[in-house]
Write a structure and sequence with these properties.
Elements (H helix, E strand, L loop, with lengths): L3 H16 L4 H9 L12 E3 L7 E2 L13 E5 L4 E2 L3 H11 L6 E5 L5 H10 L4 E6 L2 H10 L6 E5 L10 E6 L8 H6 E12 L4 E9 L4 E10 L10 H15 L3 E3 L1 E3 L2 E3 L4
Parallel strand pairs: 5-6, 5-8, 6-7, 8-9
Antiparallel strand pairs: 1-2, 1-3, 3-4, 9-10, 10-11, 11-12, 13-14
Helix pairs in contact: 1-2, 1-3, 2-4
């Protein structure tokens, strides 16, 4: 068996260097959370960011997981765990803090829930939601040692369990849902991927200000569509509007209705 502690440290260091991560707490989480506890039994089917298909690891040594690779959850559906460097970048952009309440929509097998658990600490809370009952059940089992994490099978578009400091969406939608916007506490942050019929799109970050909200583009992404993402021409136009609105400069608005901002302010 490989030296997994050293492998985790090297993995976290490589992610930090690739994405210029500023949060030491975030890097400690990547260096200490055992990814193998959330990946199922090996050998694993893995894919690199630029790769077209999955390949099997040589064996079931967990050291293979301490690389910047996607691990298949359901290869037929092209559902995987998410690229570590990409989500490290997003978490860094969100400037996560101790004691915050984080809602995670689409928790998968729970690896990133565990990362978030370490960042917010014992006095923070993570609500991990997944609309897939089997995934939610597996995540709950994987996260049973993480006392500040609650896993539920549900629809994060309908209920996020109350006010949140941070809401992170792990699937593509046409627009930010009004519930997510309204549930943010002051200085709360929402991170949501906006995609259309394909999986490609952009991730935006929305921050609740003393008065109104601030939206900005973070980076491009390819991601599985979320449950309830629309595929009508109108839904596609709403996504187009958001992509254009945040492409050149941050957007200020006061509220959101039917997926679009209202009372826009420059």
């Amino acid at each position: 068996m490989s030296d997994l502690a050293a492998a985790r440290r090297g993995y976290a260091k490589a992610i930090g260097q690739r994405e210029q991560i500023s949060s030491a707490c975030l890097l400690r989480a990547f260096a200490t959370v055992p990814r193998e506890h959330f990946a199922g039994d090996g050998p694993w089917r893995i894919r690199r960011e630029a790769g077209r298909g999955y390949n099997s690891t040589a064996d079931a040594d967990p050291v293979h997981l301490y690389d910047d690779v996607l691990v298949a959850i359901d290869e037929r559906r092209k559902l995987d765990t998410g690229l570590p460097s990409l989500w490290a970048h997003f978490f860094d952009v969100l400037d996560l803090k101790e004691k915050e309440r984080v809602v995670q929509i689409g928790c998968g097998l729970g690896y990133y829930s565990a990362i978030l658990s370490r960042i917010v600490g014992a006095q923070g809370k993570v609500l991990a939601i997944d609309c897939n009952k089997a995934l939610a059940s597996r995540a709950a089992a994987n996260l049973r040692r993480y006392k500040n994490v609650e896993v539920i099978h549900g629809d994060g578009c309908n209920d996020v369990g109350g006010p949140a400091d941070v809401i992170i969406v792990h699937a593509g939608f046409n627009h930010p849902h009004p519930l997510w916007i309204e549930s943010l506490r002051r200085n709360g942050r929402l991170l949501v991927p906006l995609t259309k019929r394909g999986r490609a799109g952009i991730v935006i970050k929305i921050t609740r200000l003393a008065r109104g909200y601030h939206a900005e583009a973070v980076r491009g992404i390819r991601i599985v569509p979320g449950k309830g993402r629309g595929s009508t021409a109108l839904a596609e136009r709403v996504t187009d509007w958001w992509e254009r609105a945040v492409a050149l400069a941050p957007l200020r608005f006061q509220s959101i209705e039917q997926g679009l901002p209202s009372e826009r302010k420059a």
